[in-house]
Amino acid sequence: MKLTFWGAARQVTGSMCLLEVDDYRILIDCGVNFDLDEKEKKALYDQQRSVFPFDPTLVNTVLLTHAHIDHSGNIPNLYKEGFEGQVVCTEPTYSLTGLLLQNAAMLHQKRLNTANGQSSNKKKKRQPVRDIPRDLFTEKHVKEALENFFPVAFGQRYRITDSVSVTYLPAGHLLGAAHIVVEVREDGEKKTLCFSGDLGRKNYPLLVDPYPVPQVDYLICETTYGNRLHEDMRPPEEALLDVIQRTCVDIPGRLIIPTFSVGRTQALLYTLNKLYVNHQLPPLKVFTDSPLSFASTRVYQKFARLLNREAREFKEDNELLFDFENLVYIETGDASQAISNYSEPCVIISSSGMVQGGRVEHHVAANIENPYATILMIGYASENTLGWRLLNGQDTITIRGEKKSVLANIEKIDVFSGHGDQNDLVDFVQMQDKELLKKLFLIHGEAQSLSDFRELLLGQGYFQTEIPERGQTYEL
């Protein structure tokens, strides 16, 4: 049995591992690598003559931990390049992945239209480009992929082959997110692996706590927060109400919250709804400006049975998990632009969470020079994104081609971070007996986070801990 690390190795994004059992090949996650810019991706794909560093036609099955694009976003390209197998995941992951991939295909189509010189206001076409990016896929490819998804239930063993079985355990982090436990029978011997996916945190709004993982031989563990602790330990309702009170009531301003459409927005809306039900939410308009958020919220409502007990009981008592008075869902682009003309104090929730693409760019651009506006960052922002620049205190930023002074207030809270912190990761690893665990692989983290977490684990006696490089193969 061989395990090769092709993504999220010594970096955060692009999760992708290849497990080979005899002549059967299993791909665990198939995510987009956001650590490379377009030129770097093109150079890599041209060198490989493929989006992938292996032949997709030789892959038999994909196991998907959860829907986020850095774990799922290259699945259509896998089919585009000849993969014919199934994608195994939980039911909510299937639904959310469908939404995210369809949204990605729409953005890819815009890229293609731009390259071809087309726009909604321009009927005249240039000569079609010949050098189409290898990773560009369309709705056709997404449809083909989704037709081959195979949803499975949590906690039930699913047999892939006579010698390989998998079990999906709730990981928190996102609706449907899973730890995947793989059991392999090889040469009369049973070997077990666990792929952590992204580890959630305890007591997170809506989501169940990560489930315990049984003893395994090999653990593949993410380390996004491998050297960090969550700073704000207040309940989400208290932390959010404090910001709203200071930015929209004490000072009659507007609060802009960049957030991700899938997962983070639902946690925000649920928290706001709880404040409304408890008569704590000031009488402000709350604009949710993301069509993808609206669609994702419907998925959360559909799978409410899989949410945590508090959320299920809240739904029983109040019927609606996310809707409350003064909440306005924005659908069209024109309606999004029109929010700028709303002069009363308000809350604007829009994607993306890193202020890199999406409608939130318009809202930040329109308010960045307004000292009565506040931009509240509630999650991780990759280096060199606009969100990262704001968090690092830059005096000016260039947004949508214009250089603007940062006069708005920039704040941050991490109560809505969907990742477990260092303590959560340690608890997760410590479920494994260090004497029985044969190898512990650390992935999905920045270089310093990986290094610091490994040192911490070595100090606790996990001497079998390794940080694999991209393309590194291990015989298990």
From TrEMBL:
User: Where does the Metallo-beta-lactamase domain lie?
Assistant: 13-260
**What keywords would UniProt list here?**
Hydrolase
**Domain Beta-Casp spans what residues?**
265-390
- Signal peptide location: none
Q: Which Gene3D superfamilies match?
A: 3.40.50.10890, Ribonuclease Z/Hydroxyacylglutathione hydrolase-like
Alphabetized InterPro entries for the sequence: Beta_Casp (IPR022712), MBL (IPR050698), Metallo-B-lactamas (IPR001279), RibonucZ/Hydroxyglut_hydro (IPR036866), RMMBL (IPR011108)
Classification via CDD domains = TTHA0252-CPSF-like_MBL-fold (cd16295)
Pfam families tied to this protein: Beta-Casp, Lactamase_B, RMMBL
Any coiled-coil regions, as ranges:
none
Q: Which domain of life is it from?
A: Bacteria
Q: Which GO terms describe its molecular function?
A: hydrolase activity; RNA endonuclease activity
Which PANTHER family is this protein grouped with?
CLEAVAGE AND POLYADENYLATION SPECIFICITY FACTOR FAMILY MEMBER, INTEGRATOR COMPLEX SUBUNIT 11
Name the record gives this protein: MBL fold metallo-hydrolase
